[in-house]
Amino acid sequence: MQKLTLVVLIQAALISSVYASEQSEAKGFVEGAEGSVLFRTGYLNRDKKDGLNDTSSAAQTAIFKLDSGFTQGKVGFAVGVVGDASIKLGANKNTGNQMMPRDSSGDAYDHWVRGGAHVSARVSNTTMTYGTQVSELPVLASNTARLVPEYFTGLYVESNEIKDLTLIGGKFTQNQWSNDLKSDAQGLDSAIFWGAKYKFNDQINGSYYGVDVEDKLDRHYANVSYTRPLKNDASLSLDAMGYQTDWEAGAATTDKRSLTESLSNTIWGVSASYNKDVHSVALSYQDNSGDIGYDYAYNADGLQSIYVPNSYLSDFNGKDEKSVGLMYNYNFKNHGLAGLNWTSAFVYGWDIDIAEYDNPTKTIDQAEEHEFFNQVKYTVQSGAMKDASLRLRHSYLRSSDTYSNASGNYVSNGIGSTNEWRIWLDIPVTLF
Questions:
Q1: Do the beta carbons of residue 195 and residue 223 sit within 8 Å?
Q2: pLDDT tens for each residue of 199-238
Q3: 138-177 burial, b for 16+ CB within 10 Å, e for fewer?
Q4: What is the distance between the alpha carbons of residues 63 and 85, in angstroms, rounded to a whole number?
Q5: How far apart are CA 69 and CA 46, in angstroms?
Q6: Cβ neighbours for 129, distance < 8 A, ≥ 6 positions apart
Q7: How far apart are the first and last CA of the chain?
Q8: Distance (Å, rounded) from C-alpha 175 to C-alpha 133?
Q9: Rounded distance, CA 264 to CA 247, Å?
Q10: Are the C-beta atoms of residues 223 and 206 closer than 8 Å to each other?
Q11: In this predicted structure, what is the pLDDT of residue 16?
């Protein structure tokens, strides 16, 4: 099935397009080139409770992206480079949270550089790219919520030969976390992925993606969303999603049974949001079932591969956990402050099955967790600093002692009770 998907994507380039060909509009290798640098100052602090060690990191980076244009002709070729160059700010004695690399003694590096190159070929509306990339697939998503992004290396194919339908497929063979110096630090052998997304009409969109990480897991994701315009420029949006994951024996990281057994998890969520002028409010529900919680990221499957509605600091993804969330967003444009947004959310999770690590089949506690999330972000709307942004984010997360798991004696993939601050200053610069 996976190999067939790749063949279909490549063959799609030979099918006559039903609308304009991207390659026919190629500007040329030099004429179509684009380059940008994102200067980012990042600070992340977690004041942990229940005896867990605090973490705090601050650093400055320049994230660069340079791409040539596609050559003209039936088949177009292009090259590109992505990477980052960073320096730490302060001592960073308690760094962590995938913010920056550390040496063998646990100290943060003073400065570091990472990145790689990629080459692309395009026929009609089908593009094949091989090399270092940032992935945005729900089943294999790069972590972009840290100082610098997570990178994958391999082949990515995307075809848009049929109007409103996008097909994707490929194979990644290396995975580099945001705090890794080596491009293959996560020991990924092979992650074959495939998927499709389709715009049924202006109101309904749907997608499906899958991934097979060799000797680790099989994961599937589906999503459908519906938006209905209402009177007085208001709108109602409904969204439903779900993951199904099967881990091979020895792969899952939070349960002793995984050493000898194959475990599985199903997590799904639904949300409804109402938007009018400067106001947006959303109500969501999320549900886990299976042998284990939604255990992700530690099998070279992407540190951001959790596209669920109740994901802030906690992902509310414990074993058998149910959660409900309420979110409100306000835009200050009517107060002469276009670009200023405030988001507040509260999520409550309950019914989390907690067991002793050495006896994971016997539930000893039904734990709970709750998070109060606030974020203020300002984006410059015009002038020399257009699109520069400052973001302040705070989470108040509390969970049951067993789910905080300070002793390490329980089966748990919870973060633990924490007060977290994130401060991000982003200044994008277009080079050409």
A1: no
A2: 999 999 999 999 999 999 999 999 999 999 999 999 999 9
A3: bbbbbbebbbbbbbbbbbbbbbbbeeeebbbbbbbbbbbb
A4: 7
A5: 43
A6: 118, 119, 120, 155, 156, 157
A7: 42
A8: 10
A9: 6
A10: yes
A11: 47
Question: Which residues pair with residue 234 across a beta bridge?
Answer: 276
Both structure tokens of 226: 């519906």
* Cross-strand partners of 61: 40, 86
- Cα(124)–Cα(23) distance, rounded to whole angstroms? 5
What digits encode the pLDDT tens for the residues 142-160? 999 999 999 999 999 999 9
Dist CA 139 CA 219 (whole Å): 7
Read off the tokens for 158.
Answer: 């995307």
Q: Which residue has the tokens 């003073």?
A: 110
Q: What does the pLDDT read at residue 352?
A: 96
Give per-residue burial for 272-311: e unless 16+ CB within 10 Å, then b. Answer: bbebeeeebebebebbbebbbbbbbbebbbbbbbbbbbbb
What are the tokens at 270?
């639904």
| Secondary structure of the chain as H, E, C letters | CHHHHHHHHHHHCCCCCCCCCCHHHCCCCCCCCEEEEEEEEEEEEEEECCCCCCEEEEEEEEEEEEECCCCCCCEEEEEEEEEEEEEECCCCCCCCCCCCCECCCCCECCEEEEEEEEEEEEECCEEEEEEEECCEECCEECCCCCCCCCEEEEEEEEEEEECCEEEEEEEEEEEECCCCCCCCCCCCCCEEEEEEEEECCCCEEEEEEEEEECCCEEEEEEEEEEEEECHHHEEEEEEEEEEEEEECCCCCCCCHHHHCCCEEEEEEEEEEEEEECCEEEEEEEEEEEECCCCCCCCCCCCCCCCCCCCCCCCCCCCCCCEEEEEEEEEEHHHHCCCCEEEEEEEEEEEEEEEEECCEEEEEEEEEEEEEEEEEEEEECCCCCCCCCEEEEEEEEEEECHHHHCCCCCECCCCCCCEEEEEEEEEEEEECC
Q: Which amino acid type is present at position 31?
A: E
Q: Taking the model in full, what pTM does it have?
A: 0.93
User: Which stretches in the chain have pLDDT values below 70?
Assistant: 1-19
Query: Cβ-count burial of 36 within 10 angstroms (0-12 exposed, 13-18 middle, 19+ buried)?
Result: middle
